[in-house]
Amino acid sequence: MTAAAATAPARRASRAWGALVWPAALLLCVFTPLLPRLLAGLSAGTPPTTDTPLWRLTLSHLGLVLGAEVVVLLIGVPLAVYVTRPGRDALRQLAEALTGLGQTVPTIAVLALAVPALGFGTAPTLVGLIVYGLVPVVSNAVAGLMGVDRAVQDAARGMGMSAWQRLTRVELPLSLPVLLAGVRTSTVYNVGTATIGAALGASGLGEPIINGLSQQNTGLVMLGAVLSGLLALSLDALLGLVTPRD
């Protein structure tokens, strides 16, 4: 038995443990007064409270992140497929450069630029999340598709497969682990980025953070930050379960 085969059950157990523990911790903090009571010492002895129930803020936050990820996938994967076709090296470099701008520009600047066109609320926040989330997805999809063994592609071509069949039966399945790793990274990034949307009126776990800053209430800030962190860990663990390993 190889070392990799020997450690595979341990890795699977670790992923399953994470997918169980982090969501359970998130639910415990959202539906019970445990977390506010633990943070009371940071709020002058009073458990921090929010006008909107924590479960509703968490669902709003999750909706923002997942909605943005759907759009990111609808844009990022077809774009990566298109620019990785033979003879499109220049387009591939241009696409990677343009999507890379999403992480070179501060998120708050992207949101501020979107406000004049879209107003306040959810719309500019979604734009910021999409721009910010495209980078890992496009980069990983391009890397995965470009990393497919040339000999495997030649063998598929030799079997008489069309370009579409090679893409759907060979290239995309083989590049799936790298692509899903990008989706996982993009999702975790956007859980943190979505908290900034509260400054523009988008609901979510950024609300207690923004309100805590304006009220100089550290407990309220920590309430949003801890729940946001638990949500990111939960999504990362759950996505890790469906990410195939090489």
- What integer is the average pLDDT? 87
Structural class: mainly alpha
Give the DSSP E fraction (strand runs of 2 or more residues). under 5%
Give a quick account of the main beta sheet: strands, pairing sense, barrel closure: none
Distance between the termini: 17 Å
Count, helices: 10
**Rg calc:** 21 Å
Order of helices and strands: HHHHHHHHHH
Question: Layout of helices and strands, plus pairs?
Answer:
Layout: H1 3-31, H2 34-38, H3 54-83, H4 89-104, H5 107-118, H6 122-146, H7 150-158, H8 163-193, H9 206-215, H10 218-242
What does this structure look like?
- This protein is an all-alpha fold and 246 residues long.
- Helices cover 78% and strands 0% of the residues.
Question: What keywords describe this structure?
Answer:
ABC transporter; mainly alpha; MetI-like; ABC_transp_perm/SBD; 246 residues; flat
